[in-house]
Specification:
This protein is of the alpha+beta class. Helices cover 16% and strands 40% of the residues. The chain is built from four helices and 16 strands. The chain has helices spanning 2-13, 17-32, 92-95, 260-278, and strands spanning 43-47, 60-64, 69-78, 84-91, 98-100, 104-107, 111-120, 128-138, 141-151, 159-167, 170-177, 186-193, 196-205, 215-221, 229-239, 243-253. The chain has a five-stranded mixed β-sheet. It has a four-stranded antiparallel β-sheet with strand order 1-3-7-5, with no helix packed on it. β10 (159-167) and β11 (170-177) form a beta hairpin. The longest helix is centred in the last third of the chain and has 19 residues, at 260-278. It is elongated and about 70 Å long. The relative contact order is 0.10.
Length: 326
């Protein structure tokens, strides 16, 4: 009986083969330095050619003309104790032009492998800058390596700001790269009200890069919007290469008062003040002059009568008596 009980306990403590295999695999991954749900901890991918971290390039940079095939390498370093298998692909505009010598690569433990790649610029590519990523996916996650391509030819820097609107305590707008060059936009904001300037933010760089053809929607905070005013928001954007544009939007703020009549009265007063501020003063006009009395139709005739006045006129003497002596 004791022997049977001991055998039953031993059987219960022994894991099934599938469970044992899963536990062993998890132990191997932990020993190898895998980081589930995050970036890999025991392997890296970066541009090839550098002997160490100090010599590594931050991204792949290539220059060429439309139709040219450009060569480079991607270095995969396996610092773990187990073999590493990674899948390689390109992402984004320039990344889609890349082709690897092998899409799947197995790297032995404590080994670094450099995989050749060819990036072919399409014959119809627009001159300027193109960007993308080289993606390596393997044990513990994936690594994305930026790739930038400068395509030879005439470049055009064109930037527009669109769809400006005021929503609550923020100003919404969109930036669009209409040219073929990579742009780093700068923004200036100015808000004018009826009685003067409400907001004046000088030009400053924005924390983004706009690839050719890219559109980005952004929000500019404005927590101090007025309760009663008529405002005009003006946005000015600029970038290298002479790219420049501006746009504006208007909004009227009316306070939500318990009595609607009070709000209308305030709005009417504001309109009256604005009208008076912009009215030109009248100058050069005096009081109207009184009408002049009508002149008599005949010498000595009284107005309104047909009779003539025959009295002596000191200024009227006959010509014969002008030179007579008394």
């Amino acid at each position: 009986m004791l022997t049977a009980v001991f055998a039953a306990l031993l059987h219960a403590l022994t894991p099934f083969p599938a469970a044992a295999a899963a536990a062993a695999a998890a132990a191997d991954d932990t020993a190898a330095g895998a980081a589930p749900g995050g970036a890999p901890a025991d392997w890296t991918a970066r541009p090839g050619g550098g002997a160490g971290d100090r010599d590594a390039r931050p991204y792949v940079y290539l220059e060429g003309t439309p139709g040219m095939a450009l060569q480079d390498r991607l270095a995969v370093t396996n610092s773990g104790r187990a073999p590493l298998t990674v899948r390689l692909r390109g992402d984004g505009r320039a990344g889609a032009w890349a082709r690897f010598a092998d899409d799947t690569v197995t790297v032995p433990p404590r080994t670094r492998a450099e995989v050749p790649l060819a990036l072919t610029v399409p014959p119809a590519a627009t001159p300027g800058d193109a960007s993308g990523e080289l993606v390596a996916t393997g044990r513990g996650g994936e690594v994305r390596v930026p790739v930038r391509v400068r395509i030879g030819g005439p470049t055009l820097a064109a930037l527009t700001v669109e769809d400006v609107e005021i929503v609550g305590g923020a100003i919404r707008y969109a930036l669009v790269n209409r040219g073929n060059a990579l742009l780093r936009p700068r923004l200036a904001v100015r808000v004018e009200g009826v009685f003067g300037t409400l907001l004046d933010r000088p030009e400053r760089p924005l924390p983004l890069e706009l690839a050719p053809g890219r559109r980005v929607e952004r929000t500019e905070p404005w927590p101090d919007a007025p309760a009663l005013d008529a405002v005009t928001v003006r946005l000015r954007v600029a970038a290298e290469g002479g790219a420049r544009d501006e746009a504006e939007a208007s909004e009227t703020y009316v306070p939500v008062a318990p009595a609607a009549g009070g709000g209308l009265l305030l709005l009417g007063g504001l309109a009256a003040l604005a009208s008076r501020a912009y009215r030109k003063p009248r100058t050069g006009r005096g009081a109207p002059l009184p009408p002049e009395p009508p002149e008599p139709s005949e010498a000595g005739a009284l107005p309104g009568t047909g009779a003539s006045h025959r009295g002596p006129d000191p200024d009227h003497r006959p010509l014969a008596q002008a030179g007579a002596r008394p």
